[in-house]
Each structure stands twice: as C-alpha cells, then as structure tokens.
Amino acid sequence: MLRRAYSPALQVELMEDRLNPAGSVIPAGEFNWTQYSPTGELGQLLWNGGNLVYQSRVAGTWSAQTVAASGSFTAAEYNSPEAVERASQTAQLVFTTDGTPHAFFLEKSWNGAVGKYQTQIQHYARTSAGWQKIETITPNWQSQWGPNNLVAEAGANNSIHLIFTETNAAATGVGNFGTGTLMYATNAGGSWGFAKIADTADLSQDVWFTGGRWTPRFLSLAVDSTNHAHVTYTPQFYIAGAFSTVNSTLMYATNRSGTWASQTVMAPQDSTADAGLGASVAVGPGDKIAIASYYVDRYATGSPQSSKLMYHTLTANGWTHATVTSTPDGYVAGDGARFTGFAPQLYFDAAGRANIVFSDEAGEHLPVSYANEFAGQIRLATLNGSTWSLSTVFRQTDPIHNQLFFPVAATYKGQTTFAGLQATSTVDGNKNPIRTDFAVVNVNTPYGSAAPPVSNVPPVVSPPVVSLPVAQPVSSGTAAVTGWAVATNAGTTTTQVLVYRPDGSVAMTVKPFGDGYRGGVRIARADINGDGVADLITASGAGIGARVRVWDGATAAMIADFDPFPGYQGGLWVTAGDLNADGVPDIAIGTDLGNVPHVKVFSGRGFGELASFYAYAPGFLGGVRVAMGDLNRDGYADLVTGAGYGAGPHVAVFDGRSLALGQGPRKLVNDFYMYSPTMTAGLNLTVGDVDGDGFADIIAGPGGGPAHLRIISGQALTSGQGEIDLVSTIAWTGDTSGLRVTAVDADGDGRLDVMLTPGNSTNGRIGLVTSANLLPPNPTGVQWIDTFPGLTTSVFVG
Questions:
Q1: What InterPro entries does the annotation carry (predicted)?
Q2: Among 32, 209, 361, 552, which one has the highest count of C-beta atoms within 10 angstroms of its own C-beta?
C-alpha cells in the first residue's frame, strides 16, 4: 500500500510492504537507483524479492514493470542489513543519452574446469516490446570467489561504462584484508572491452561503521564529456579484530590519458582512521573532478570515534580538501557516538553548484555494548560560492528504531527528488535489534508523465527456435525408454538390477559389480548403442573405486566401463540425455554425500569428457543429484541438479547448449528451492515431458520427510513464468522416508509415466502412476508392483 505524509515544503511517500513485513522491496543499487532520464522521466530500480523491478512516475503514482529475476545475490525477503547490502550492491540503473532505461545486475557461475567463478553481467533494456534481455556480458577470465560490486554510468553517444570488483582471496581475520581486482568495461567502441583498473582488498566484506556492521560503498564512477571514466575506490584496509578496520585510503583512478592511472586522494590522518569507506565522484562544469567522502576517526580498537563529510576537488596542483560538516542534525540519543556524512552522493545542479546528499547516524549506546540501533535521515549540503548550506529533507526523530540507508537525489529542470531506504527496528529490553523492517522512502516526487513512457528502441530479435515435434521422446536418443528398472541399495545382499518389459516380465538381471558387491547402485536408461533398445547405465555406491558401467539392453553384455573420478571412492548419481544434440544420449555423473558437488558429463560416443564443473559452492560436501532433459525445447538436453544431503532442496538448471559448445556452465533459469529450505535430506530428481507439450518437466521427491511428489512445468520455467506446478501432492501417507522418482513409458503406450518408491525398505515394492492418472487433478491410483519380495533394503527406480 502507499502512505503519504506531508511536510511544509516537501512531499514524502513511504512505500510499505504489508504482505512481507520484513520487507521484500529494496533499492537495486547503492546509488543511481533513482534517476531522471535526459527526457525527464523519473525512474527507480528495485529488488522485489528476487525480481528486478523498474518503476516510473506516471500520473501521480508509480507504474511498475518486472525486468528480470535473479537468485544469485537476492533473497525472498530482506530482514537484515546484510541481506539488503548483498542484493543492492549488484544492480544498477542507467539512462543512455537517448532516454532509454537500462538495467544491469551481477550473477556468477562456477567453472569446475578451472575451479573458479565466472562473472556474468546481465543487461536488460526497455524496448518498444517492453523490458527485454539485451545480452550477458561475460569477461574472458574467472576469479576465485566471483564478483561483489557493480556501478554503471552512461557516456556519450549512448555508450555505457561499468566497474565491478572480483575477489581472489577472501579476508580471513585480523591483519588480513584479502585481495581483489577492480575492473572496467565499456561498449563505447561498439563492443564490450575490459581493462584492469587496480588491485584492491576483498571488497565483499563488511566493516564497523557507526556501531553496526555494514558494507561500505567502496566504489563510485563518473564519465566526463570526452567519454573518459573517473573512479573512486579503496586499495586495502587493516582489520583490527572485533571492531573491524582501523584504516583505509581513498583512491582515485581515471583513463583520461588513454591508460588507467591511480592516485591517492586522502590517506588516514593517523594510523586509526578510515578515509576510503564511502565516496562519490562527479564531473562538474568544465569537466572538473570532485569527490564527496565519509571520513571516520577511530579508537585504537577500531571502534568509530567521530566522523565528518569531506569535499575534494582535483586541481593542477593536486587535491584540495574541505570539511562540509561534522555534526549530525538534531539527535538526542543515549551514550553512543553521533556521526554524519554517511553514504554521500555528489552531484552538480543546473547552476553548476556542488550538492551532496547524505545521512546522519547516531548510536544509542557505545558500539562495544552491542546495542547498535541508530537513527538516520536524509540531509543535503549545497556549495554556494565558498560556503556550504545544510538542510534536512527527511527528518527522523526516533534514534532507537529508525535508520536511513542509500540516500540518493535526482534532479531535472529545477525539480529535485530524494529517496532512501528506511529501516525500522524492533529491539529487546537491552535495545539490541531483533527485527528490522525496510521500506523505500521518496521525497518530493513529481506528478510525472500522463501516460507510461514508450520506448522507441526496436525489440531484441531472439535467435530462432529449433522446430521440434510436439511430443518429445523421454530420452533424447534414438529410442524411447519403455518398461522400467529397479536397483537395490546398499545392504547385506548382492547388489543387482532388474529390468522389466512393459508387460511386467523381466528382460534382464545384472549384478553390475560382481557377486561380492553389496554397496548399492544408482541407475539410468538410454539407448547408447543405437540399436533401438534402451541400455542400462549403472553407477557404483560408496566403498569402492567409483565406476560407471553400461549394459546392452538387448543382450545384457557390458558395453562400457569407465572411472568418472579417478581416486574417488564415494557414491555416484547418474542420468542420461543428449546434451550435444548428436543423436546419442550422453551420461552425467554427480558425486554423493561427503564430497564436493562435482558434475561431469561424458559423451555417449566414446565416453570422452564433455563437461566438468561444481554445481554448487565447492565448500558444500553433500554431493549433487543429476537429471537431464530438454527444458527449453532447443534440441539440447539441459542438466538439472539438486543439492545432496545437508543443504536445502536447491535446484539449478544448466543450459545444455552452452555446455555442449564448451561455453561453461551457464544457468538457464534462476536457482530455486523445490521444497521448504528447511528440508535438508537431499533432493531426488528426474526429467521428462509429463504434459506432452514438447518441453521436459522437472519431477522431484524429497530425500526425507513426507512423500511429496512435485512436477514443475519446463515450458513455464524457461519462459520466465517461474515454478508452475503440474503436480504437487503427497503420493502416500504413513511414511516419512522421502520419495525416489523416475520417468519412463512403463506400459509402452507412448506416454510418460512416473515410477515412485520410498526411501526406506518396502519389501522391494515400487509404485507406478500412469500418464492417465498423473495430471487430473493430482495423481490417483498408485499401482504397487512387487519387484524384490522380502528385500530388506530400499531400492532405486530408473
């Protein structure tokens, strides 16, 4: 809902989020998230949960459009400064000189081949067809921990300039500030080019600001009339311990000479001060370079002592420095320190005057007492000749509960609009914060345009879609998989697999790793040898050297035997699908519990390695479950992964075409949770076209808990509609051991059926839900089949 309050001079709007009290709407960008376009359109870029939203001012209200969705750095709701800063630092709004709004946001993908993250900058713009994806900007290098800050600015002739940082070594504690790299990118030359600006600290970390831990705005960017870039950053800082940094330096860099060169703007005045924790660079009349910065003096422990707002200008003789203010406006708090100059944004108005919008902060207690709530408000400093005048444009009088983050100002033809993120906290008896609610505040917003703005930019032409049959076979290979297979899990009896024909008779029995092996086996089926009969693919359990063996579906002879992870003795997960669209199914393997989430894909032609990467962060040791199928109907089987035991039911979908072309693991859609994040027993997955629309769907069961069968539409997922359920039901009650799943044409009628089994022993029984009973309205008539009467272990189906 929208709530308006009025001051004598300025109109204030508070956009509240009643459906999600902790706040799902936050700025997308630490600054630049509120701007006027060159044509006068007032726009804002916001995160609404994981959705990037652009809103423009139309007829006295805000008209919003969804730009894109991202799960890399966002959260469903934001109830802490850490969650807010993580998302806000990764997005930016830019208006090019023709008035077109552009949105950028950071993502990253793991490159298992080199053991590093690939930075991806997603670029969207508003065209005559609405908001569309323009491109993914991908540098030709990787970093150990990926990107963590993004700033964007428009240049001449509709060019765009970007800076971002990547972390190579994370900060680990006292005396260690980590290492990173500050990078620059621009399309001013017609295509994207990249350059290194400088080495930096690990700029993904937070520091002790004003009694609370908050990530400072380390970077800022401005572009002059000759299309040269100007940047502020901090190269390093010293971590003292519990109260974080005790010193940092403010640096300036520019490529005006043709190459990037850096110089010091301001160093700490003693060994315990921070000059580089918050700055904003701007280009004034005559391409004059100026910087506003937040300077903090500290105690020897690192606790903040006092602060001031600084203004620096570049002259022929170097930098000049002036203090704008060192006093907050009107706070009456407890015994905590009072600060000013927080998060400055510098801009020049139409008269050529320097203006700085910033926030005050006042702590209720000394930082060491942990009661860190502090108030904040939006203030404006304007330079008139040689004198700074100060005004408070959004005043807050509650020093216990209110904060103000990301203050910004935007101006157009004498109209100045201010915005910020108000944080209202609930505190306990000791005034420690126990909950923080966020809401976007707008001050002095105009009536706006009479109708929603229309872009003259032509729509983006998408690449042609491969024409495929409406009903895809279950396997991407030459033969549909009919019948089913059942494999025994680890136990006291010899591990074996039974393969059944559609009429229920046994086609073959295989003991894949010999009579003495009792470690269990996971299975998949696909026509590897091209004889029209689905072959059996077996992957070993834990306790022996990892093996994958392929058995001829017609003769039961072994036709392949290879070691996917040399030296590895953990269990394996297996799936099959035609990743490279050569007509032969390929084999994907994932590691099991106790190991990093490593995925490899092997060609069905000769079993050479096609891809190798980590599906999740390498520090996760729960393994990774795998499934394959063509979710977006482009002719390439995509790879779907589920997190193993110990993490939430995290689903990632990797574009098969990108993997096949050697472009690395690129996400086809944003990651999501199949069930509640509190379910950490692992996720069982398979993929198949359940509804016959030609798009493979994701079929899942939990590794533990109720037997919740969930099927998500692949067509909806890959077309941007999100996770739309085709089926969501409890397959049976009275069992809390989870659900294992596979998708096959069990009865040979040409339609996909789903096979189910619990995670515990059921005397070898498995469940069949035929296609006729699968969709309307939920699965009915589960047919139980006895495969191993008296079996004391659980089974897998395939």
A1: FG-GAP, Integrin_alpha, Integrin_alpha_N
A2: 361
**Which residue's entry shows tokens 């077309």?**
719
**What residues contact residue 171 under an 8 Å CB cut-off, 6+ apart?**
177, 178, 201, 202, 205, 239
Residue 251 and residue 264: Cα distance in Å, rounded? 5
Structural domains in the chain? 2-443 (2.130.10.10), 484-797 (2.130.10.130)
Residue among 282, 222, 277, 230 at smallest CA distance from 252: 230
Closest CA to 71 of 52, 92, 44: 52
pLDDT of residue 334: 53
Buried-state track 114-141, b at ≥16 Cβ within 10 A, e below 16? eebbbbbbbbbbbbeeebbebeebebee
Q: Which of 167-176, 337-346, 447-456, 485-494 has the lowest mean pLDDT?
A: 167-176
Tokens of 130: 């609405």
Based on its alpha-carbon atoms, the radius of gyration of the chain, rounded to whole angstroms, reads 29
Contact indicator for 322, 354 with CB cutoff of 8 Å: no
Amino acid identity for residue 417 in this structure: T
The span from the CA of 417 to the CA of 380, in Å, is: 12
**Could you give the CA distance from residue 480 to residue 475 in angstroms, rounded to a whole number?**
6
C-alpha distances out from residue 191 to 133, 188, 528, 688, Å: 16, 7, 43, 39
Residue for token digits 């007509």?
583
Contact yes or no for 230/289 (Cβ under 8 A): yes
pLDDT digits (tens, 9 = 90+) for 95-142: 999 999 999 999 998 877 788 889 999 999 999 999 999 999 999 888
Assigned token pair, 38: 């060159």
pLDDT tens-place string over residues 646-687: 999 999 999 999 999 888 899 999 999 999 988 999 999 999
Kind and range of the H or E element at 164? strand 160-169
Closest CA to 323 of 361, 297, 289: 297
Residue 473: is the preceding peptide bond cis (ω within 30°)?
Answer: no
Q: What is the DSSP letter of 156?
A: G
Tokens of 552: 């001829």
Say which residues have a Cβ less than 8 Å from residue 120's Cβ, sequence separation at least 6: 106, 107, 108, 109, 136, 137, 138, 666
Q: Concatenated DSSP letters for 424-490?
A: EEEE-TT--EEEEEEEEEEES----BSS-----SPPP-PPPPPP--SS--SSSSSS--BSEEEEEBS
Please identify which residue in the block is written with the tokens 């003096």. Answer: 297
Residues paired with 725 in a beta bridge: 712
Reading the block at residue 319, the tokens are 């930098």
State the Cα–Cα distance between residues 509 and 519, nearest whole angstrom.
17
Contact (Cβ atoms closer than 8 angstroms) between residue 570 and residue 594: yes
Strand bridging mode 433-443 / 484-488:
unpaired
Helix or strand or coil: residue 219? coil
3-state secondary structure 46-113: EEECCEEEEEEEECCEEEEEEEEECCCCCCCCCCCHHHHHHHHCCEEEEECCCCCEEEEEEEEEEECC
| Cβ within 8 Å of residue 209, ≥6 positions away | 216, 277, 296, 304, 342, 361
Read off the pLDDT of residues 40-66 as tens digits, 9 standing for 90 and up: 999 999 999 899 999 999 988 999 999
pLDDT tier, 435 (very low <50, low <70, confident <90, very high otherwise) = confident
- The 3-state secondary structure of 364-416 reads CCCHHHCCCCEEEEEEEEEEECCEEEEEEEECCCCCCCEEEEEEEEEEECCEE
Burial label for 405, CB within 10 Å (0-12, 13-18, 19+), is buried
Q: Is the dihedral of CA 474, 477, 482, 483 positive or negative?
A: negative
Contact 62, 4 (CB under 8 A): no
Q: Fill in the amino acid letter for 483.
A: G
